Amino acid sequence: MDVLQCLIKGDNMGKIGFTTSIPMELIIAAKKIPLDLNNIFITDPKPQALVEIAEEAGYPRTACGWIKGMYAVALIEDLEALIAVLHGDCSNTQALMETLQLKGLNIIPFAYPFDRDPENLKLQIEKLMKYFKVNWEQVEAARESLLPVRALCHELDAMTWKDNLVSGSENHYYLVSSSDFNRDLVQYQDELQLFIKKAHARRPYQDKVRLAYIGVPPIFTDLYKVLESLGARVVYNEVQRQFSMPGASNNIVEQYIKYTYPYGAFARLEDIQAEVARRNVDGIIHYTQSFCYRQIEDLIFREKLDLPFLTLEGDRPGRVDARTRMRLEAFVKMLI
Fold first, then answer.
1. What does the alpha-carbon distance between residue 177 and residue 284 come to, in Å, rounded to a whole number?
2. What is the set of domains in the chain, with CATH numbers?
3. Which of 75, 119, 304, 319 has its CA 20 to 30 A from that of 282?
């Protein structure tokens, strides 16, 4: 913890926003605060109001809800800079960045290579290093300082599917938060350690149905609670788990090559198939965001994953609607 505290202390603790997970070790090495706009948007007490800010500014009704939420968050937060992932995430990010640039925000582009080429990724990381004025030694020191907290994330995940001591909603919360560690590394690690200690004292869940959740985190605010009320528990959160960097690696380039989310459906499919097999999953829920190009990838997952499969679509932040609840009820009932 001493190394971690040393890295995050500094007089110039500016906030660096980003649109999806990036090598945030560079941000930490530069003694800045990493800030995932998605997490701030969806945990806001009134996320729908943030969507409306974007629509009042001229964003169309058919634009992605996450994009509109991030637009509002970026304007509200006092950001030193915003890292825009222009390849490997949302196809609307470029337009988002242009509208934010119009408002005077400092935009830093970043792109994951489509072919997962380590040399191309290294070049992208070096561009960020140049901006933040850090070197490889500092970045690797930051990466190593995060290994203990990442190990806690992996322990939590194992407690979910192997020990059956953690709910799907708890798994989702802690793993999705690992994209920026809730903007406070030390507090996040302390909170997670305490949660794990308490969870070890629980009685294991007795599940009727074990589910895999694949796709981007849901814009529904109560999806996991609804599933748990029906007797089902999510034991695999695909993208959220990837945020915690689950694969062992020797350096930062290797770590973000192993990170599957930015590299397309087939890169993700290999990880999904392996995890679904070892977690004894009964069925799969694939969440897709309205107006997102990733909806088309549903065709691939349906063909390649040989388990009962339910596709859910969400648009705006809020509770699960009646139609979606009925579909969830029917799906869980079929699996019991």
1. 23
2. 2-144 (3.40.50.11890)
3. 319
Do residues 224 and 234 lie in contact, with contact meaning Cβ atoms separated by under 8 Å? yes
249 CB-near residues (< 8 Å, 6+ apart): 255, 258
pLDDT in tens, 62-106: 888 899 999 999 999 999 999 999 887 787 888 999 999 999 999
DSSP-derived pairing of the beta strands 209-214 and 107-111: unpaired
> Is 137 exposed, middle or buried, given 0-12, 13-18 or 19+ CB atoms closer than 10 A?
exposed
**Six token digits for residue 217:** 């985190």
Phi-psi region of 36 (alpha: psi -120 to 50; beta: other; left: phi over 0): beta
The predicted model scores a pTM of 0.92
* CA gap 174, 241 in Å, rounded: 9
Q: Compute the chain's Rg from CA coordinates.
A: 19
3-state secondary structure of 330: helix
Beta bridge mates, 312? 287
Residues counted in the chain: 336
